[in-house]
Amino acid sequence: MGRVIVAVDGPQNGGSALTTNETTMPAPFVSKVATLAAAVALLAAGAAQAQSTAPVPPAIDQAYTQLMAAPAIARLLDAVKADHERSIEDLKLLVEIEAPPFKEQRRAEAFLARMKALGLADARIDAEGNVVGLRKGTGNGPELLVSAHLDTVFPAGTDVKVKERDGKLYAPGISDDTRALSVLLSWIKVLNDHQIQTVGDLMIVGNVGEEELGNLRGMKALFREHLDIDGMVGIEPSVDGTVLTLGTASHRYEFTFKGPGGHSFAAFGQVPSAIHGMGRAIAKIAEVQTPTFPKTTFTVGTVGGGTSVNTIAPDARMAVDIRSDAMGPLLETEKKILAAVDAAVVEENKRWGVDTLTVSNKLIGDRPGGQTPTDSPIVQAAVRANAGFGHKTLFRGASTDANVPMSLGIPAIIVGGGGKTGGFHALSEWIDLTDAWKGAQNSLVTVLGLVGVQGVSAPVLEKRAPRAAAK
Ligand SMILES: [Zn+2]
Asked: What residue spans define the domains of the chain?
């Protein structure tokens, strides 16, 4: 990475807006050091999104210059704009089909039907429930996976009817990630209508299991089955110009405390309390120290247990989320938390001179982490495409489907599908689709540059040797 300009997460991502721009500082050397110091401090604060202004490698710059100068691509991008209103119909159709974790089937079937209707006749639903359509290139090019997830966080029975107010569309899941599904369909339509021949293959996917306890099962299955995928571009709600290059890893545990229980008065002093034991564990966990950078976090997200107010609790359970931008600190924190829970049980038993309280734990979430280097071709391609649409690129990190390819060392990024969005994971989720077609154009150009377009540009994404099947 060359010079760095740092921007703190903007208001739409819940952060405060502050930008440090080295160009305001006169003496180049001094400003470089000052900017780097500011960058390190902000990165250490874990709130920063780094921005790269290093020149894009000439070969990548040339590919995108050719792409954006080609009349066929200009017509294609006009078609994306012209298809905007129709794509909103796909968005409404899909968002009004509920798709909670592990219940994505109905939406998958609707998405498959749309894919086929728009020209990917061979599309199918795989064993895990992912909708997979392959748009073949002319051959000998890379294979690029472009994906959006089918599932939402909202449980069955949620009112998913779209409501229009103040120029915005409101519905649970409308921006995360249903907009992206409708963008993929729009791309299929315009690529086929304009008979655009890519060099590399596009594997277009609506995948399952991105949210919560879906545990990235869809993406894990895809990379288990397809050993020849050379790169992945996922679509998620993002501010125009942002590129996700860091996959925050997470491990989630459920702890179950079990004891004999008993009458709160008659058995007092003779039996341990599962809830007291859990309480001791939570107090210890709350004191666990983690590094600020790489950002490492933990929380006891849910608790439950107990029989009645006048019963010494025979059972209690809690779910703990542990996350980090690097695997080392994640495993370190995990170790501390597991030890804290064991110590709490020993303490509760000792309090009453018994050994009847036990605890068991289950790994209920395992999202591997990783990173795509910002100077890698797939990232520089997105940087160049963004520049073509007037955006300086901001890099960001989060836990997404890209975690899987990143953890396997396969180039992966997440970009946006256009529009302003908010209220993620809340019933008040909304999307403002004013000029959203620009974001859909921008990301399509990123993708086309990666796989190359016959007679226009050579693929930027490198073809890799197929991976060996995991043992
Ligand atoms: Zn999402």
From this structure: 6-246+369-451, 249-367
Residue 333 contacts residue 288 (beta carbons within 8 Å): yes
Report the chain's mean pLDDT, rounded to a whole number.
91
Nearest to 63 by CA among 390, 453, 376, 374: 453
Q: Architecture of domain 249-367 in CATH?
A: 2-Layer Sandwich (3.30)
Ligand 1 centroid from CA 326, angstroms: 21
Residues 141 and 201 sit within 8 Å (Cβ to Cβ): yes
What spacing in Å lies between the alpha carbon of 200 and ligand 1's midpoint? 26
pLDDT at 37: 53
pLDDT digits (tens, 9 = 90+) for 16-51: 443 334 344 444 444 555 555 555 554 444 444 577
The conformational region for residue 89 under phi > 0 = left, psi -120 to 50 = alpha, else beta, is alpha
Domain range 6-246+369-451, CATH class: alpha beta
Predicted local distance difference test score (pLDDT) of residue 165? 96
Instruction: Kindly report the pTM of this predicted structure.
Output: 0.85
Which residues of the chain fall below pLDDT 50? 1-30, 42-48
- A 10 A CB-CB count for 258 gives 18
* Rounded-to-integer distance, Cα 222 and Cα 332, Å: 30
| Residue given tokens 């509920």 in the structure block | 98
- SS3 assignment for 15-67: CCCCEECHHHCCCHHHHHHHHHHHHHHHHHCCCEEEEECCCCCHHHHHHHHHH
Structure tokens at 16: 């405060």
Burial code of 263-279, b = ≥16 C-beta within 10 A, e = fewer?
eeeeeeeebbbbbbbbb
pLDDT value of residue 466: 87
Interval between CA 236 and ligand 1 midpoint (Å): 6
CA of 173 to the centre of ligand 1 (A): 9
Please tell me the distance between residue 23's alpha carbon and the centre of ligand 1 in angstroms. Answer: 35
Q: Is 469 exposed, middle or buried (0-12, 13-18, 19+ CB in 10 A)?
A: exposed
Instruction: Please choose, from the candidates 382, 406, 404, the residue with its C-alpha nearest in 3D space to the C-alpha of residue 395.
Output: 382
Cα of 311 vs centre of ligand 1, distance in Å, is: 42
**Residue for token pair 């179950």:** 256
